[in-house]
Design goal:
Strand content of chain A: 25-35%
Largest sheet of chain A: 4 strands, antiparallel
Distance between the termini of chain B: 44 Å
Number of domains of chain B: 2
Distance between the termini of chain A: 58 Å
Mean pLDDT of chain A: 81
Low-confidence stretches of chain A: 353-360, 362-434
Helix content of chain B: 25-40%
Strand order of the largest sheet of chain A: 1-2-3-4
Mean pLDDT of chain B: 82
Number of helices of chain B: 6
Structural class of chain B: alpha/beta
Oligomer: heterodimer
CATH topology of the largest domain in chain B: Immunoglobulin-like
Largest sheet of chain B: 4 strands, mixed
Shape of chain B: globular
Number of helices of chain A: 2
Order of helices and strands of chain A: HEEEEEEEEEEEEEEEEEEEEEEEEEH
């Protein structure tokens, strides 16, 4: 503990139970999880600051952490964390293994923890950290060498510490953990360094390792036929952004990143499941309930790991994902069934849909049970006409509801077999069938 | 038969001595670090020094050169584990040189390390040390000794230095190298992967 600190924070996190975290939006004065609530909406009900007075905002305090000496990896290091606020105490991480507890009213440093990081760690994508999770009196964070560390939220002293990645294999860890029920969930980073992505779950109070879910299947596992040779062993699909959670369905929704190598698809022919996907997981055992792949066989480093936002509308449960392939996807989060896809950026290419009969990667027929026909969307008045074939289901047709003033909701997603619809964007028609 | 005067003159040329040592050093040590160290250090390439050079970690290029420079300044020493499991090593600050001696401490495995510092210099120094929980700062007045205990749990290369004025820039930078492998439970489930050749 550094000199000159308070060395102690109020014991506000002691009351951060799962029940309270599940209703985090009911406490707008706090920011209890990475997204503010499990649904990933990042919405605050506070209304004191609004469009009429935002121009009057002024600096109340500044907390500065001056780096001293050498920092691991000479590439990038930066603040990328979302602060967590619990009843007046702000918990924050910095690059290179730092965690701070501050008085949110005046920025006063209450305690500081620093985990020593070797200089010679191979970090694919910068020395950064995205924040902490709080629960049951503890603050959880990962460091770049892949340790999940639980600190006493009052003193900043370590309670337990578990290594979950192999930094010498090119892995690292940068995300903010997710505390769900009696578990804390984390994912790996390093998708450009020839790794195999994974998520891990640990018991909140003891640090006991509960399960690991690889995001790239090994031979014999479901989805493994979307890889050729031993490309799966370096297939990427890292899970470096915090997931979202639906307490009613008891499902965690976690994004996965690009396949590896990121730009050279010739080394990994196939759809490359489950990269660039959302995985719906049972948090108790990590079992995969359904998946949806945003960009099969990505060769653009779209890295579709970012958040999956949960929302309800007209009695249905949806999941929204803005992907770097330029489309907003809406899924039925109960089943993984496709609902719609709306371009929100400059067109990045045509979008194709895979069905059980034909591979979206090769365009050739596949055995039953695999992906199938490729469908070109037509555009009318700036809107995209979509078809969403799913195994064993009639092909529904509708206008993209979010882009239409008169939305027509899908008619079959709920009834379809889960995890079947898959999409692909392509730079050109030829590329899509190569 | 005596050596001709001309050749004796050539052999005595310091420049040629250095070139000869620079060429022979990699052969003697089998390590690329030998090509990076200063001539004054190359002259000391006896078998013990060669063995120490060979122990230097094979890290990425920026750290590779840094390690070579720091080694050349202060040399290397191994921490010894005591009965209590704590590893121990001593570090001196020689007079007027602005270096740590040794500048390179090897820990055989992750754990606790106790460092005993001996400041024999005429200037005040400090040891700014890596440790889990928070960096430690040890004040080293003129002609005084001090002890610090640190904890490092991850294999790899850590730096320490003197934060007083520009002492680190003048040479008071050192390394702690922690030996060890990633435990099996944290490794990826996959066949062994080919590794790039070191250069």
């Amino acid at each position: 503990m550094d000199a000159g600190l308070e060395g102690r924070a109020p014991s506000v996190v002691q009351g951060a139970t799962y029940e309270r975290l599940a209703k985090a939006r009911a406490e707008p004065q706090n920011w209890l999880t990475y997204y503010g609530a499990y649904d990933g909406q990042r919405y605050s009900a506070l209304d004191q600051i609004h469009s009429g007075n935002v121009k009057d905002l002024a600096v109340a305090w500044v907390f500065q952490h001056p780096p001293l000496g050498l920092v691991s990896t000479p590439v990038t290091y930066a603040f990328e964390a979302t602060p967590i606020v619990v009843d007046g105490v702000l918990f924050m991480t910095g690059p290179d293994g730092y965690v701070w507890a501050l008085d949110a009213a005046n920025g006063k440093l209450l305690w500081q923890y620093h985990h020593a990081i070797p200089l010679d760690v191979p970090l694919c994508c910068g020395n950064v950290n995205r924040g902490v999770a709080v629960a049951e009196g503890k603050v959880f964070f990962v460091n770049v060498t892949g340790r999940l560390i639980a600190l006493d939220a009052t003193t900043g002293q370590p309670v337990w510490d578990k290594l979950f990645v192999d930094v010498r294999a090119g892995e690292s860890a940068t995300l903010a953990p997710l505390a769900v029920k009696d578990k804390v969930l984390v994912g790996s980073s390093g998708g450009e360094y020839g790794v195999r992505g994974h998520l891990d779950a640990f018991e909140i109070n003891t640090g006991r390792h509960l399960w690991r879910r690889y995001t790239v299947p090994k031979p014999g596992e479901p989805g493994s036929k979307t890889w050729a040779g031993d490309a799966w062993a370096r297939g990427g699909g890292t899970a470096w952004i915090t997931g979202t959670y639906d307490a009613d369905l008891d499902l965690v929704f976690w994004g996965t990143g690009n396949p590896g190598p990121d730009f050279d698809g010739s080394m990994r022919p196939g759809d490359n499941l489950y990269t660039n996907s959302v995985l719906a997981l049972n948090p108790d055992d990590g079992s995969l309930q359904w998946h949806y792949q945003w960009t099969p066989h990505d060769v653009w480093d779209y890295d579709g790991v970012n958040e999956n936002i949960l929302f309800d509308q007209e009695g249905r449960m949806y999941l929204a994902h803005f992907d770097k392939n330029g489309y907003l996807f809406i899924l039925d989060r109960m089943t993984g069934g496709f609902v719609s896809a709306i371009p929100f950026a400059a067109p990045l290419g045509e979008i194709s849909i895979a069905t059980p009969e034909k591979s979206v990667y090769s365009g050739r027929p596949r055995p039953q049970g695999r992906t199938s026909a490729r469908v070109r969307p037509a555009r009318r008045n700036g809107r995209m006409r979509l078809t969403a074939p799913e195994p064993g289901c009639p092909i529904p047709r509708w206008w993209s509801s979010a882009a239409s003033s008169n939305p027509r909701p899908p008619n079959s997603a709920r009834a379809c077999r889960i995890g079947a619809a898959r999409w692909r964007t392509a730079a050109s028609p030829n590329r899509a069938s190569s | 038969m005596s050596t001709p005067l001309f050749w004796r003159g050539v052999l005595m040329t310091p420049t040629l001595q250095f070139i000869a040592l620079a060429v022979l050093a990699p052969v003697l040590t089998g390590c690329s670090y030998a090509g990076l160290v200063r001539p004054s250090v190359l002259k000391e390439l006896n078998p013990r020094v060669a063995a120490l050079v060979n122990e230097l970690p094979n890290v990425d290029h920026p750290n590779n050169h840094l390690v070579a420079k720091i080694y050349a300044l202060g040399g290397l020493s191994h921490a010894k584990a005591g009965r209590d499991g704590v590893m121990r090593a001593g570090i001196r600050v020689p007079k007027d040189q602005y270096i740590w001696e040794p500048a390179f401490i090897v820990m055989p495995h992750a754990g606790e390390l106790e460092l005993e510092f001996d400041n024999r210099d005429q200037a005040i120094h400090m040891a700014f040390l890596p440790s889990n929980g928070g960096r430690q700062l040890l004040y080293l007045p003129v002609h005084r000794r001090g002890t610090a205990r640190i904890t490092l749990d991850q294999p790899g290369l850590y730096w320490f230095g003197c934060p007083v004025a520009n002492h680190a820039g003048r040479g008071m930078l050192g390394f702690i190298w922690v030996y060890g492998e990633t435990p099996k439970e944290a490794r990826l489930d996959r066949p062994p992967q080919p590794q790039p050749e070191s250069d």
